[in-house]
Design a protein that fits this description.
With about 190 residues, the protein is mainly alpha-helical. It has 7 helices and 4 strands. It folds into 2 domains: about 100 residues, no CATH class; about 70 residues, no CATH class. Helix 2 packs parallel to helix 4.
Length: about 190
Amino acid sequence: MNDTATEPVQILRILGAGVPALSTAGEAAEWDKQLREWAQSLLPKTRDILGSLPDELDIQRQAITRILGWTLRLLDRTCSPPKLVDATWHVDHLATACRLLANIVVSVGGGRILCTWCQDYGDDPRLIQVIEAGSGPGGSLSACVTCRARNGLRPLIDKQRLPSPAPPVSDFPRLLGATRLVPEEAPAAIRPVP
């Protein structure tokens, strides 16, 4: 745990590893204190982002509003339950709330995207692939500059801009009218392709 980490990216890096298994009430209280500080530092930034979102992003506004409300409810509770399991549950939920708030600040407010390959918020992330799911939300894969170079990845927009290779010469008659020359007949005879 890092007491001085207040930058959202640093918070995401720390919480990306997860909260360690808590074995004492003292550890739970220490994590609770740190997570509360992080949440308190992220709340005003998240509220500013919520206020700056245009009206056409109503679904995103609703999601951020729900996350803010849930975080405030968690902060209203105290972490002094009699059982360690309750303290662990509370700390896990606070960690999730901090992760969500930090992600909003970094991605919505800062325009930074998590690199799928290195799991960090690297430089100039670009969309590599969109995964469409039949019944679920699907997903997307993004990569930073370093991972794109290391793994030979091309951004999706660059893939779409690449010129398509020219069709072979033998395909031109088919492309020009779905007909072909019949070698046994005179060159002027053209019949439709079956």
